[in-house]
Amino acid sequence: MDAAYSLRGKNAVVTGAGAGIGRAIALAFAHAGANVACIDIDSSAADATSREAAKSGQRAIAVTCDVGNEDDVRAAASKVLKEFNAVHVLLNGAAGHDPNGTVLDLSLVEWNRVMTVNVGGAFLMSRAFLPAMIAAGGGSIIHIASQLGSVAAPARAVYCTSKGALIQLAKAMATDHAAQNIRVNTLSPGAVETERLVKRFGDIETARRISGPKHLLGRLGQPDEIAAAAVFLASDASSFMTGDEDWPCLEPGILMKKNISTAALVVMPNAGHNINLEDPAAFNAHLSELFAAADARKWPARDPRAMAGSILGK
To answer: 3-250 in CATH: which number?
Structure first.
């Protein structure tokens, strides 16, 4: 392994380590040389991950914790800091069940529970471990967000809101703690083959058939692929990277909306267009206006032709 990507000599904390993306990341951190604290609300799942991580030859411990419970987080941090003399990496990956629904469908109890785990958990864990990371000379905090934190999907109101909050939390923390050598970034995966996806679609084959083709690569992501990106963000290979949202896999429509519509907003703030970017004719007409506006204003920043070319393959 390239030394820049090595985590040897570092101690990492991973929440949601019992299954899915969190488990893959905990194992990848151990494989990269880190000692790992595997935190999960499911004690048997945390134990299983820690035992597997230890096979890499690194120290691994299991910690049972509800990340949305302040007393649990305080106790978990105390246990980890007694076992490890320092903490250098924190990966906030814990996420509970998020019910489908619009704001009219969801109860306040359902809303609060998702926000408490997804956002409150990242806040509580970061607050608990930041002092130790600062004392160690700095470190890397990674929040697992989602592409749905930047764009929306029907009937996913609370999930989209919670993941968008994580993206902003990372940016705020990055500005607050850069002087203390703390880097804070988010990973925003597309659909990944996990048990959570199976619960949403009923079975993995249905998930592959419906969600896979929506992605640029025509398939679902694998937990190990997200874990590789997490190792990059945890390592010195990303030492000049903070406050960033990293998208390991994208849907084509999201790529267009994230780049082109942002350019249109900057170049033509008063245009008032309501463009369906998935309608080729409307999209091309919109681009023509965008190019003309850019030429008229001699806008030097991000040339929309280059942006469009990368999207359309020109």
So the answer is: 3.40.50.720
